[in-house]
Amino acid sequence: MQSKTSRWIGHFIYAVIMVMLVGSVYLSGKNINYNWHWERLWPYVVNTEMQDIRAHGDGVATLTDGGQITIEFDNGDTDQVVRKYDQLIVGDGDLVFEGDTIAQLHDWKFGPIALGLWMTIKISFISLFFAVILGLVFGLMRVAKNQVARDLSLTYVELIRGTPLLVQIFIVYFFIGTVLDLDRFTAGVVALSIFTGAYVAEIIRAGIQSVATGQMEAARSLGMTYPQAMSYVILPQALKKTLPPLAGQFINLIKDSSLVSVISITDLTKAGREVVAGSFAPFEVWFTVAALYLLVTGTLSWAIQVLEKRLSASD
Q1: For residue 121, is pLDDT > 80?
Q2: Rounded to whole angstroms, how far apart are CA atoms 82 and 74?
Q3: Integer distance in angstroms from the first to the last C-alpha of the chain?
Q4: What is the dihedral of CA 110, 113, 118, 120, to 10 degrees?
Q5: Which Pfam families match (predicted)?
Q6: DSSP letter string over 125-141?
Q7: What global pTM score does this model have?
Q8: Average of per-residue pLDDT values in the chain
Q9: Which residues on adjacent β-strands are paired with residue 110?
Q10: Fold exhibited by the domain 112-313
């Protein structure tokens, strides 16, 4: 009973601390005469305003009895037909010019922040897939008996871990990307995969070496080949032990993906910079961007914790 009471007291103290932190941020903004405008941010997440339907060229607008708008172009191009709209702007027989608003449609579309979040998730998880493959291959090479394989894997790991990710992104995009004609997205995936793969390789190597050597000897004595023993005996145990550090590395990958904005990939960070320039609400934008990063990394951390508990229960 006492432990339950102590737990609730702890939750209450935590809530008080968080409220104080939020309040201090708000008061800090007031002290520098900053006016909060959260309402400016929503259209950059999901835009629910009326969308303009514009004329594709110069011509004459014609309205049918059913409400259909037809633009007959002066240059003889195929007529522009608009059947779905909510508010009519032009009248029957009006002259219209290219770019004129002829009607409006009440629709919604994702704003730059939502699109940037999707780009961050996409590039992170694609890079994560290839990083795991690279890490597994080079991690196995690190513990192989072949000296060439060990030297190659050691060179890869030390070279990648010893240079900044930002420099690697520039090298991949401006040098390798130019030689192989890679687009920005592919170059970003390659750079993130190679960078994270080096750290995953070391984590997997440590996991394999943490398994008792007698496990391999016992598997070989039962007639298993080295690949079979590694696949069915060593790696399953190693992966269970490496889940916490792997989770941390995967979370770092999501945060590191913000650096791809330097090669003009519109991820969440780059979208945030663009929205700040258009909304003049820097604090609101960057707090929102930080919260979205926290949402993605927190979800991934929770998923790995669930997986870790299930694997522990199966022992």
Answers
A1: yes
A2: 18
A3: 32
A4: 170
A5: BPD_transp_1
A6: HHHHHHHHHHHHHHHHH
A7: 0.79
A8: 87
A9: 46
A10: MetI-like fold (1.10.3720)
